[in-house]
Here is the input.
Amino acid sequence: CVNHVAKRMGTRLRNIKKTTKGLGGKGKLTASVIKDLTIYYGLAIRRHSDSLENMRKAIWATYLHKCSTDENPQ
Here is the structure.
């Protein structure tokens, strides 16, 4: 199930944030960023279920968009 996969990714991101020092905080991996990544990950899977390559591109586009800053555009 798509929601199960998205929830697992969100849980893993929260666990990594909890165990890795310096990963959380302002401008880094916050709860709202994890929530957004989880939602967009699920949407990418649902919208591109017919093409694995398009699914991969959509997931990476979301990741790069969230990592992008004015100083370091992605």
Summary: The CA atoms of residues 22 and 28 lie 9 Å apart. Residues 2-19+29-67 form one domain. The radius of gyration is 13 Å.
